[in-house]
Amino acid sequence: MDYIELSCKITAENTQEINDILVAELNEIGYESYDQTDDGLQAYILEKFFDLEKVKQLQVNGIPNVNIEYTSEVIKTQNWNQVWESNFEPILVDEQCLIRAPFHKDTPKTKYEIIIEPKMSFGTGHHETTFLMLKTILEQNFEEKNVLDMGCGTGVLGILASFKGAKEVTAIDIDEWAYNNTVENIKKNNCSNIKVFIGDANLLNEQQFDIIIANINRNILMDDIKHYAKVLKKNGTLLLSGLYTKDLTMIREETFNFGINHISHHEKNDWVAATFLKK
Question: Strand, helix or coil at 171?
């Protein structure tokens, strides 16, 4: 699938503050990732979800003495390999887990080494949410656990769960590109116990999982918690990210409604990954 790169040129007294507000509001309408520029930021969203009128209606545009100019460009999927090859550096998480691309050489030896061909999918460890989820997974016991990886992206989280001894991992993503990328990456990492499916939480029926991993975004998580509650075993663990720190309160309230309690969380640059337990 193609993406839209939305370039936002900001003119304001406090550009960084407006930048932060804009990112928060774009996140609400489905934007997935961001790059800061000298005069604003670039935001990315799947082309089928792009709506410039929604962007122009954001509240940030009405702040006095703030002007934001928007331009957009289609980013073809075949262009992303060159971007990743030039920018994707290995990621080391807690000195235990190394995420690298096939073309990286002379990398440090770690307990877990995951090879990712990132292409167009989300999940290389560079974004705070993926990094925090990797950190959280390293802290959990996955031995002989049945695991669900929702919004699997590159498959990196499910692969680490497999490396940590998971019995079986079910990986689901709504994006066909992510599905294909996950299939490719589980082969590269010899993870025969990961099954991949295209779809969303509606695929979840009678399965029961010991651990559910979901790194998506707040709105989808809020909609899907009821589905997770049905398929999460008693005393099962729910790991959620894709959230800003300010979003954690509402997520905690929603999980609590389904008997799932907040246990702990990690934060990085206003992003959070949280651990919950079903009673």
Answer: strand
Rounded CA separation 72/214 (Å): 29
- Edge-to-edge strands of the sheet including 232-244? 194-198, 168-173, 146-150, 209-215, 232-244, 271-278, 260-268
Q: Rounded to 5 degrees, what are φ and ψ at 224? A: -95, -10
Beta bridge partners of 37: 40
Give the domain extent around 31. 3-75
Query: Are residues 31 and 154 both part of a single domain?
Result: no
- DSSP assigned state of 167: S
Quote the pTM value: 0.75
Q: At what angle do helices 218-231 and 248-256 cross, to 10 degrees?
A: 20
* Residues 252 and 262: beta-carbon distance below 8 Å: yes
* Conformational region of residue 165, where left means phi above 0, alpha means psi within -120 to 50, and beta covers everything else: left
CB–CB of 117/102 below 8 Å? Answer: yes
The CATH number of residue 148's host domain is 3.40.50.150
Which tokens in the block code for residue 234?
């008693």
Please tell me the distance from the alpha carbon of residue 236 to that of residue 276, in angstroms, as a whole number: 8
Residues 66, 186 within the same domain:
no
Averages of pLDDT over runs of 10 residues in the chain (279 residues) are: 90 90 90 85 90 95 95 76 62 93 85 82 72 96 98 94 98 89 94 96 92 91 95 97 91 97 94 95
Cβ proximity of 115 and 189 under 8 Å: yes
